[in-house]
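Hi, here's the filled form for the chain we discussed.

Project: internal
Contact: R.S.
Residues: 311
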Amino acid sequence: MTANAPIDIATGSWQPKRNRAKIIQSVVKLITGAFAAISIITTVGILATLIFEAYEFLQEVPLSQFLTDTRWTPLFASKQFGIMVLVSATVMIAFLSILVALPLGLLAAVCLSEYASPNLRRVLKPILEILAGVPTVVYGYFALLTVTPFLQSFIPGLQGFNSLSAGIVLGIMITPLVASLSEDALYSVPRSLKDGAYALGATKRETVTSVILPAALSGIVASLILAISRAVGETMIVTLAAGANPTLGFNPFVPVMTLTAYIVQVTSGDAPYGTIEYKTIFAVGTTLFLLTFSLNIFSFWFVRRFREKYD
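And the returned structure, exactly as it came back:
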């Protein structure tokens, strides 16, 4: 007992613990793998549904007509399926939102990263991120009932439903996304670059514009593209504020219909199941998916191509 006790303890006590640790690790690995598989299977299922239903739609509507027609009236007696009508409205509102979110978000990121004191930053950043927690339906009514009447006071031709107010409010909504991700990119710039600029006699403004912003360019662009993807997929703001008039063009003063607004209209019960009108929502959904997927691919390419690496 005395001579063999340490050996018995080492071999008999630690072995079960190692076995239990291996079992626990295997269980954790199985659980995490199952959740990862669920997400992958869900994505594959969504893609399969979109592709199958969009294929069924294209069996009845030629792809050339779908891409080149200048009207979108699938719920009317004279049916036309020009998807570019909805795409133009979606792109216009997303562009207007970026015109608002880019300067506000980038300036807020610079302020939080380079100018605000730690105490002020702890106060300002949560206040800014509160905007991301406001329900989008509230933004939609804010655009319809507050922003639009305000804009009509000095834009006489602005109609009650328009893409201008929808784009402005959508830009306000995605500003925290641009600000937060851009601030992370600015904050990750090495301190040595900033100190080198100051050692050469650069001012704070010159350091920010000539050193910090170029060094964080890939992260800023990634945040911008992510915000554009968020704007393209937004539903309630454009449904409530932009209207439901499928008009081809880029006039921000008239009602328009975006891709998401049309999906809301059809899924509210206007189209019977299995009809060509019902199948259009999958064609529109596939188009929306391809737009956001293309933006994400470009974001990955840009970040990998222009990312700055520091030792």
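Let me know if anything looks off before we file it.
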